[in-house]
Structure to design on (271 residues):
């Protein structure tokens, strides 16, 4: 299993508490986007690397994929979340975009643009090898790996019109924290958790998704050619703030922790 991270703008392999500079050790990068564009050759090299490197400061970790060209996101992909939002589980994925300027690192302070900002912990899949019209049976060979993601959402902007709109409301600066590392494997039944302070507000298994990653890659690439470094936010489980009674939104006093077993966690603060 390979763990790729962005340490102060440079691609590193992470081994426990040590980081190995990918450009110095293997000649890939140093920009993480360049590593992704050479993904098949990079992974072949990375599998042969003997764990090494130096202790590093996790506060210097940036988004493992800092400048994705396309960021797909899927709504209502867990049946209990579809139910809390008042919908039947969809028969086809409901897709929107998070505009790529919203991407942020695993430990950041995000400006709240209003008083209706909500949390959505999500599994994020990263495209390694691009392709168009990828079959579901081959889809995973196009996936570089997985990260934890937060699909932060400003519900007032989302609900401005009828029907609601997703992309703008979910694209303020900092609204797409990802990381802490890009990991090449995730357990099919990994648990996915979101905590507000100490309180668990979302908890599910990624196995509960209606459309799994292979199906999403096939359905998205049936329309859009997928490019190295593209992200797929795969949807959030039940437990978002605007469906609570009374509704609960993020404040400057909150610390939001987003966690997936085996992938690590994001810590997001607000100002
Ligand atoms: Zn979402």
């Amino acid at each position: 299993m390979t763990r790729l991270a962005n340490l102060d703008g440079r691609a590193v392999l992470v081994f426990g508490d040590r980081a190995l500079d990918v450009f110095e050790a293997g000649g890939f990068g140093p920009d993480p986007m360049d590593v992704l564009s050479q993904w098949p050759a990079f992974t072949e090299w990375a599998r042969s690397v003997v764990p090494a490197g130096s202790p590093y400061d996790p506060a210097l970790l940036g988004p493992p994929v800092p400048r994705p060209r396309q960021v797909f996101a899927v709504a209502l992909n867990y049946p209990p979340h579809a139910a809390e939002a008042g919908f039947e589980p969809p028969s086809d994925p409901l897709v929107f975009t998070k505009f790529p300027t919203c991407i942020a690192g695993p430990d950041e302070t995000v400006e709240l643009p209003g008083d209706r900002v909500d949390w959505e912990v999500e599994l994020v899949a990263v495209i390694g090898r691009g392709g168009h019209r990828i079959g579901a049976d081959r889809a995973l060979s196009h996936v570089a790996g997985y990260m934890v993601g937060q699909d932060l959402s400003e519900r007032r902007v989302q609900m401005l019109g009828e029907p609601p709109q997703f992309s703008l409301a979910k694209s303020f600066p900092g609204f797409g924290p990802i990381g802490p590392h890009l990991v090449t494997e995730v357990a099919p039944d990994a648990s996915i958790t979101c905590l507000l302070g100490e309180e668990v507000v979302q908890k599910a298994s990624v196995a509960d998704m209606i459309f799994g990653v292979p199906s999403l890659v096939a359905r998205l690439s049936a329309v859009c050619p997928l490019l190295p470094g593209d992200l797929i936010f795969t949807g959030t489980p039940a437990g978002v703030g605007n469906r609570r009674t009374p509704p609960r939104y993020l404040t400057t006093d909150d610390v939001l922790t987003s966690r997936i077993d085996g992938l690590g966690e994001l810590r997001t603060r607000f100002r």
About this structure: The helical segments are 22-26, 32-37, 39-47, 79-84, 155-158, 213-221. Residues 73, 120, 122, 151, 233, 235-236 surround zinc ion (CB under 6 Å).
